[in-house]
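REQUEST ID: PR-0412
SUBMITTED BY: lab tech R.K.
PRIORITY: routine
TASK: structure prediction, single protein chain
INPUT:
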Amino acid sequence: MKQLYLNIMKCFLPVLFISYMAGITLFTHSHVVNGVTIVHSHPFKKGSEHSHTTVEFQLLHLLNHVLTTDSGIIPLFVAAVLSILCILFTRPRGMRYACSCPGVVSLRAPPAV
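STATUS: complete
OUTPUT:
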């Protein structure tokens, strides 16, 4: 049953995305209501006049304007900053370097141990 569900989702989600992108790209038009131009998109027959009710315009406004807050990003940011600080403060203070040939001037930096 789970495999059937996954196979249906593999086909359904790309079709849903493509139809959504086609709907918002191909059917853009505008209406003037009380001196305000409202631009939106939905499938309709070209050449035929259509209108929307006030409730439909409010629904289009709600569907087209998404408000996102940063409440989901703050915990991730804090976790990233704390992990970087832990890495920086727990690193050993003194680094020892190995010299392959004592007394010989080398043109490259010695490897760190």
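NOTES: Residues 1-40 form one domain.
REVIEWED BY: pending
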